[in-house]
TrEMBL record:
EC number from the UniProt entry: 1.1.1.3
GO biological process: methionine biosynthetic process; threonine biosynthetic process
An MF annotation (GO) of this entry: NADP binding
Binding annotation for NADP(+): 9-16
Keyword NAD set for record: yes
Keywords: Amino-acid biosynthesis, Metal-binding, Methionine biosynthesis, NAD, NADP, Oxidoreductase, Sodium, Threonine biosynthesis
Organism: Mediterraneibacter catenae
Pathway: Amino-acid biosynthesis; L-methionine biosynthesis via de novo pathway; L-homoserine from L-aspartate: step 3/3; Amino-acid biosynthesis; L-threonine biosynthesis; L-threonine from L-aspartate: step 3/5
SUPFAM superfamilies: ACT-like, Glyceraldehyde-3-phosphate dehydrogenase-like, C-terminal domain, NAD(P)-binding Rossmann-fold domains
Name of the featured protein: Homoserine dehydrogenase
Sequence positions that bind NADPH: 104
Keyword match Membrane: no
Pfam family, one: Homoserine_dh
ACT domain ranges (all copies): 349-423
Amino acid sequence: MKKIKIGLLGLGTVGTGVYKLIRMRSDVMERTIGAQLEIKKILVHNKNKKREGVDESLLTDNWKDILEDEEIQIVIEVIGGIEPAKTMILEALKAGKNVVSANKDLIAEEGRELLDTAQEYGKDFLFEAAVAGGIPIIRPLKQCLAGNEITDVLGIVNGTTNYILTKMFEEGMEFEDALRQAQKLGYAEADPTADVEGLDAGRKVAIMASIAFHSRVVFSDVYTEGITKITAADIAYAKEFDSVIKLLGVARNTESGIEVGVYPVMLPKDHPLASVRESFNAVFIHGDAVDDAMFYGRGAGEMPTASAVVGDVIDVARDLAYDCTGRISCTCYRQIPVKDFGEIENKFFLRMQVKNRPGVLAQIAQVFGGHKVSIARVVQKNVHLEKAELVIVTERVKERHMKDATEELKNMDSIYEISSVIREY
């Protein structure tokens, strides 16, 4: 039986999972692919580090051992970051090798060059694991749903923030306490900035938007706002309004351009994404033919991510068996502008501390009116002698108008602080 040989770049959490899964499924793969998969070499930083369960004879610290090995037909890149991953992938494609990657940072920034190079050399470049770990979304968008005009992609695509918000909602934790618990369980890194500030989700949304709308969206196009300012008080109001707060990646294809951003959203409890708890991820899409569809599951972790990587490897192996690599490459054939975020319209929830005296609400309403912001409802709570908490929910308003209004409100003598500004679905 034919053997398809693989070079694995990286043996961290995901790389170890890929190594395990390929070995675990070797007998099944022979039947489903018609060939054996064999990891021939593994690139690591330190060959002398002990790695339990890994054949040490496969280890190398020299990239050329893989690049110049003509038997290796598939390269799996799971080292992450921009460089040296980008150079290695480009060199592998130019050397006639197919590539599977889980590198969201690189693909969100440099995906066009990588896909164009793969197309030029007639090779596969697949990256299912780069967006939602074990949840299939790239292949469905490129293949299963290719007959649709996709207009909306909404996603909970960061398990760390979803876990934190779940604990805040269900157990009444403050953000810092929930973050510490997520770190203790290994869901959050020691430096959680990329997760809690929405950067990780932003990269994933850029990739999904590019594929869904057939037009290039890069990470710098994505407005990002994290969850660090969400408090237990905000969660309490969400419950009162029969909603939950989720960090959503939002991408929409509108007549005036692509709208794309990552930010906390007050989401009604009856929305399918509202029930996604703890570290699970989900992506909700709307297409003109399929209508609504949702993909749900584990968005990260050793084996879920390995599942997506190995699925791509099997796809490449099947293409090799029929000599048809490179058949599905870049699908960005359009050039749709990405809208300035200030021009996007959203509803807003504002919580503010104001002086408890007549006329304050009228002053606030006047500021809003001057900036084209319509008020949908007002709730006043926690009234004390000198101070009251005021919650205002707006109608849909342009982001730039809302920003201008809040800047003016902050300078008003009758307002102590604007405690929260959260978008509503």
